[in-house]
Amino acid sequence: MSEPVNTSRRRVAIAAAAVPGALTGAAIVAPFVASLAPSERAKAAGAPVEVDISAIKPGEKLNVEWRGKVVWVMKRTAEQIASLDKIPASQLTDAESRKSSQPAYATGATRSITPDLVVMEGVCTHLGCSPTAKLSPGELGNDWVGGFYCPCHGSKFDLAGRVYTGSPAPTNLAVPPHKIAGTMLTIGIGQDGKEA
Length: 196
Ligand code: FES
Known about the structure:
Structural class: mainly beta
Number of helices: 2
Distance between the termini: 28 Å
Largest sheet: 5 strands, mixed
Bound molecules: FE2/S2 (inorganic) cluster
Order of helices and strands: EEHEEEHEEEEEE
């Protein structure tokens, strides 16, 4: 008889490593994230992942694994949230096209349930490389307000994962279904409680 698949939610323990915020111009380093080692079969089954977000400070980003992909969980500062409005719509490629395939909360300028906490896949929508955080304003030119840069072919994304016009990536970074209840984020379940 085959072993039953463990589909219970995985809880991710966040360990240490506070990081200075982007306001200082310092590079952001993703804090260490430890997983409670789910079974390979549970991973394959795509069990939802729970993350305690209470320890994430403004300007910090965590890397969490969900369904074999890296998911970024980032708490944006007030300045980073404000930066999203500074980017003209003409500089953004994908304002509308993913509405049908993304959670409703991923379609506004912040692409998030709450203005500060953004949850998105750290996977470039061109050919799947992992973009690099370039969070400091001016880091990629005078009009750069902070975001992510894919070194493979030069795609640029803002701090909501919106792709800049002229990038080879055709669409924004994907926002996985997720919900927030108090200090607990669950990736893989929508706000309606339905599992993705
Ligand atoms: S894979 Fe990111 S730009 Fe090509």
